[in-house]
Amino acid sequence: MDKLIHDTKGVTISNDGATIMKLLDIVHPAAKSLVDVSLAQDAEVGDGTTSVVILAGEFLKEAKPFIEEGVHPRSLIKSFRQAAVLAVQRLKDQAISLEDKALEEKKDLLKKCAMTTLNSKLVSGEKEFFAQMVVDAVSKLDPATLDLKMIGIKKVQGGGLRDSFLVDGVAFKKTFSYAGFEQQPKSFVSPKILVLNIELELKAEKENAEIRLDDPAKYQSIVDAEWNIIYDKLAKCVASGANIVLSRLAIGDLATQYFADRNIFCAGRVESGDLERVTKATGAKVQTTVNNLDPAVLGTCASFEERQVGAERYNLFMGCPQARTATLVLRGGSEQFIDEADRSLHDAIMIVRRALKHAQVVAGGGAIEMELSKYLAEYSLQFSNKSQLFIKAYAKALEVIPRQLCNNAGFDATDVLNQLRQKHALADGSGKNFGVDVNTGGVCDTYKSFVWEPALVKINAIQAATEAACLILSVDETVRNPKSEVPDAASGAAAQAAMTGAGGRGRGRGAMRGRGMRR
Amino acid sequence: MSLAFDEYGRPFIILREQERKSRVKGIEAVKASIMAAKSVARTLRSSLGPKGMDKMLQSPDGDVTITNDGATILEMMDVENQIGKLMVELSKSQDHEIGDGTTGVVVLAGALLEHAESLLDMGMHPLRIAEGYEMACKVATENLDNIKTRFEFSKEDIEPLVKTCMTTLSSKVVGRLKRQMAEICVKAVLAVADLERRDVNLDLIKVEGKVGGKMEDTRLVEGIVIDKEFSHPQMPKELRDVKVAILTCPFEPPKPKTKHKVDIDTVEKFEALRDAERSYFTDMVQRCKDSGAQLVVCQWGFDDEANHLLMHENLPAVRWVGGVEIELLAMATGARIVPRFQELTVDKLGHAGSVKEVGFGTTKDKMLVVEGCPNLKAVTIFVRGGNRMVLDEIKRSLHDAICVARNLVRDNAIVYGGGAAEISCALAVEEAADKVTGVEHYAMRAFSDALQAVPLALAENSGLPPIESLTAVKKRQLEESNPYLGIDCNDTGTNDMREQNVFETVIGKKQQLFLATQVCKMILKIDDVIKPSEFD
C-alpha cells in the first residue's frame, strides 16, 4: 500500500521506503538511525529500502525480550554480527550467476529482475512494458561506467502509462522561443548538430565600457559594429554546415529569424543536463566560440523531430550513432502519479544497473529469507552457549519478510509461513527456492516463476539492518538536549545540530557505521 | 499518531511536532479518500451529455464563469482536499491529451470508486480490487478496438470529421449552431494539419473573440485577426493585394547596446545630430517604400514623427504587434521577419489578399483582419457572442471540438457515443469476468457496473427514466450484438447511434478508461494519510 504524506512542500504519494522515511521528519534519535539505514540502502543499491527498515525493526523486536531478561547487549550484538556474516556467506553460495549467459539472454533475465522490483509499485499493471523499457535504457549506457545521469527522465502530464516511451537518444521540452521560431523546419533526417555555450543575441559586448562620441556622424558606425559582431557569429554558425543549433544560453529573436531564413532549427536556454546528453548521444562537442568551427565538432543523429507530447511540444533526437544515453518520457494521469512512476522506475533502473555489474540473482518473494532463516536455525545448534538462542532469534526475525508480504497481499500469513517452512525443511533441498506466491496466496518456486532479486540488494539489506539494530542495542543511555524538545525550534537545522551535539553518542556512531557499511 | 511510552510513562517523540499532525490509517484512509473523490465526481455528474447542465462559478475576485466543461469546472472549484485534487488533475490531463471527455472521465472514476467501496465492505483487499479493475480495463479497451470503425476523410471530404465534432458540440452552449461551428473547427484543423506526419500544431489556430453580435457571426478567418488598428486614423481602412513588411525594429534611430555618450560641444555638432536623426527617419521610411511594401507591421512602437512621415508617404502601418501575432502573420503571409531596415528587400515581403480594419457596433474597438494569404498555415477563428461569459464558453467549446478534430487526424478510428461504447464494454467485461476465478471476478463485475454509470447519467440528465432506458438498450445490444445502440438523449426515436450520427474518438474513450483506472488504483493503494492538522 502507499502512503500519502502532506507536508509544507506539497503532497507525495509513495510506497518507496526511503522516500517515506525522508518525508516523515522523524526526530527520535534511535528512530532516526533507521532513516539513515534506509537512505544508505537507497544510495547504495536503490531498492530494498523498505525491507531494510522492516528487518532492522524485527531484529530489535526479537532482541527485546532478551534485554528485558537481563542479557548483556554486547553478547547479543556479537551473535547478531556473527549471524549476519553467516547469512551473507550462505546467500552468496545460493546466488545464481548470470555472467556466462549470452547478451540477449542476459537482457531477458535483467527484465525479470526489473519486473520483480516493479511488482510492488503503482505501475505494476504495466510492469512488463516498463521493465523492457528500463532494460533497453540501461543497456544503452556505456557499460564501463553505467552513469545514471545519462538516462534522462522527462515527465509529461496526461495520457496513459502505456503512452510512455523510450527515446534512444535525447528528448527535451521545447525551450522558450522568439518570433520566427515557427518558420524554422521542424524535422530533419541525419542533421548536423552544433552545440554552443554562447549567447546569440544583440548585446553589449563589454558590460562596463562606455563609448564617447564627439562626432554624431560616427554614431552609425558603432551601431553597425555591434550588428556586425552578431551577424559574424551567425554567419559562422551557418557556414559550419549545421542544421540544428543548440545553446545553453539564450538565442535571441534576431538569431531565431536569421536561422529561420536559412532553414536551420535552433533552441536556446537548453538545460545543461539535457545538453550534456545531446553531446554524448550525437558526438557533438560544446563550443564556447564560433571561430574555427571544425566539422568534427558537429554531432549527428538519424532523425530529429519536434513532436506534440500531451500538451507540450518536445524536441526529439533519435537514432544516435554512439548513443550512450537514453531518455524515458513518462506519461500519467496526475502529477503525483508520474512522480511515483518516476521513483519506481528509478528503483528498477538501479536494480538493472546493479545486476549488470554484479550479475548474481537470488529467488525473491521471501524465498531467500526463508532459506537463510532455516540455515541459521540449523547452524545455531552447533553452539552450546547463549549464542544458540540469539542466532535462532535472528533466524526468526528474517521470516518477517515473507510474513509481511502475505499480510500486505491479504493472505493468511501463518498458513503460508508454515507451508514455506515445510518446503525449506525438505532434506533434498528441492524446496529451497520456494517463496510466497502473491497471486494465488500459496507458495511457489519463485526462481522458476522469475521473481528474482539481485543478490547485492539482499546482502546490503541484511548487513545494513544488522548494523542498525546492533547500533541501537549498544546504546545504554540517551542524553537529550532540552532545546530539541522545544516544539517551535527556530529551525529544523538548529534542532538537529543540537541533537547531534548532545545525544551524539547514538547518532555519531550511526554516521560512522553508515560509512563502514558501504564497503 | 503512533505513540510509544517508556517504563515511566513518558511518551517518545518520534516525529517532529507529531501532536500537530493528523493521521488516518488502513481501511479508514481508503474510505475517506473514496468519499472525497466521490463528492467531486457527483458535482460533475449533472453536466454530462447533450442535455447536461451548466455550472456558474464565481472566483474570489468576483469573475463569473458559466460552463459545463469538466476540466474548467474543477479548475475553478479550487478543491482543497488532496484526493479531490487528484480528480482535478485527472480531468486536466484528459484535457491536455485529448481535449474532450473531461466530464466523462471524472464521472467514470467516481463510479469506479463508489463500487470499490462496497467491495471493501465485503472485506476485499484494496489492491486486489485495483488489480481486478486493471484486468477489466484491458478487456474493455480490447473491446473498443473490436467495435471501432474507421473514418476515411480527406481535405475535400470533411463530412465525417464534421459529424464527430458535432457530437462534441451538441452538449455545449453552441448546440444550436453545431453544424456551423463544427465546420469551422474542422476547416481550421485541416488548414494547419500535416496529414503525412499526422501532426497538428494547435498553436497555429488562434481563437479570438469580441463581445457583441450574434453567435452566428462567428467565422473562420483564413488568415489572422490582430487586435490592433492602423497607426494613423487617416490611413486607408481597407487594402487589397498588399505586400507586407514585418519588422522587429522600432522606427527610431538605432541605439547601440553598449553604453554610450555623445559629446556635443558646438552648435554645429548639435545641428548635425538633429540632421542625422531626421535623416534616419526619412531613410527608414524610404527603405520601406523602396522595397515595395504597402503595409508595415512593426513589433515595436514609433513616435509621432515617424507616424506622420509614414502617413505622408502613404504607407499604412501597424505598431505594437505582439510576438506571437508577428509570427503567425509571418507564417500566413509568407513574409520573413526583418530585424533591421538595411535588410528589407523585395523577397522578404509577404503577401495578403486583403487587410481590413473592422469596427464593431457603436464601440470604438477596432481589429485588423488579414485574409487571402498564400500560405494557409495559420488561421483564426473569430468568435462573437452576447456577453463575455458566453464568449468564453464558446471558446472553450470550440477548443474541445478542435481537439476532437485533431485526434481524428492522428487516428481516424471512432466508436459510437451516447453511452453505446460504454454499454458494449460493460457487456464484454461482464462476459470476461465470468471466466475469472478469485476475488478479481467481483472487481471486474464492479468495473462493468461502473461503466454503466455513464449511460445512466446521460439518461438521467436527458430526463429519461435512467434504469428503464439503460436496461432496454443493454438488452437490445445483447440480443442483436449491435454495439451501435445507445441512449436516445435527443428523443429522436431511434437508439441507433449510427443514424443519429453520434461519434466519439477511440483514443478519447481509451484514454478515459486508462486514466480513470489509474487514478482509482492510486487512490485505493493509499492506506496511510499523514497531514498537518490545520488542513482539516
TrEMBL record, chain A:
InterPro entries: Chap_CCT_eta, Chaperone_TCP-1, Chaperonin_TCP-1_CS, Cpn60/GroEL/TCP-1, GroEL-like_apical_dom_sf, GROEL-like_equatorial_sf, TCP-1-like_intermed_sf, TCP-1_chaperonin. Residues 506-519 have a biased composition (Basic residues). The keyword Nucleotide-binding applies. Residues 483-519 are annotated as: Disordered. Keywords: ATP-binding, Chaperone, Coiled coil, Cytoplasm, Nucleotide-binding. Its main location: cytoplasm. Residues 489-500 have a biased composition (Low complexity). GO terms for cellular component: chaperonin-containing T-complex. Residues 81-108 form a coiled coil. It is found in: Cytoplasm. One of its GO terms (molecular function) is unfolded protein binding. Molecular chaperone; assists the folding of proteins upon ATP hydrolysis. Known to play a role, in vitro, in the folding of actin and tubulin. NCBIfam families: chap_CCT_eta, thermosome_beta. Belongs to the TCP-1 chaperonin family. Heterooligomeric complex that forms two stacked rings. PANTHER family: CHAPERONIN. This is T-complex protein 1 subunit eta. It comes from Pleodorina starrii. The gene is PLEST010769.
From TrEMBL, chain B:
Gene3D superfamilies: GroEL, GroEL-like equatorial domain, TCP-1-like chaperonin intermediate domain. GO terms for cellular component: chaperonin-containing T-complex. The keyword Transcription does not apply. PROSITE patterns: TCP1_1, TCP1_2, TCP1_3. It is found in: Cytoplasm. GO terms for molecular function: ATP binding; ATP hydrolysis activity; ATP-dependent protein folding chaperone; unfolded protein binding. Its main location: cytoplasm. Keywords: ATP-binding, Chaperone, Cytoplasm, Nucleotide-binding. Heterooligomeric complex of about 850 to 900 kDa that forms two stacked rings, 12 to 16 nm in diameter. Molecular chaperone; assists the folding of proteins upon ATP hydrolysis. Known to play a role, in vitro, in the folding of actin and tubulin. Belongs to the TCP-1 chaperonin family. This is T-complex protein 1 subunit epsilon. It comes from Pleodorina starrii.
